[in-house]
Amino acid sequence: MEESIKDTLQASILWKIRDGFNCKKTDIRTYSPLTLAYIGDAVYDLIIRSIVVERANRPPDKLHKTVIRYVNAKTQARMAEALETELNAEEASVFRRGRNARPHTTAKNASTADYHKATGLEALFGYLYLSDDMDRLTDLIKIAFGKLGLEI
Known about the structure:
- The protein has eight helices and no strands.
- With 152 residues, the protein is an all-alpha fold.
- Helix 3 packs across helix 4 (60-68), helix 3 crosses helix 7 and helix 5 packs across helix 8 (134-148).
């Protein structure tokens, strides 16, 4: 592989955004859990959409139907439960902060408990993304999918 291509692939999207748009690195411990969940929701959605698109070139409605099976509060709550024993102390703390946060929105198709667990998981995913730890983030998704028997 050509060296410049290899370097480009190794640079994280977060680093490219921070560098390209002159964003300052902020101590992510100062972010509210709902802010972490906000970005975590988008990152998780992007990961799932990327997997679905990479696996098959399908019409958008079929892509969407596949994605929504994984990107919803009920599935994310199940993932959170599956990951409980996999989290280190710092990750568990971020998850709890997210789960215990009180969002101003309510779940459309999930119980309040599932919605809170999903928010906790999204906060954890946001935290890992902003920590530039995509390896851990993708590992956790793979672990949860494995424990739940989910395949995309």
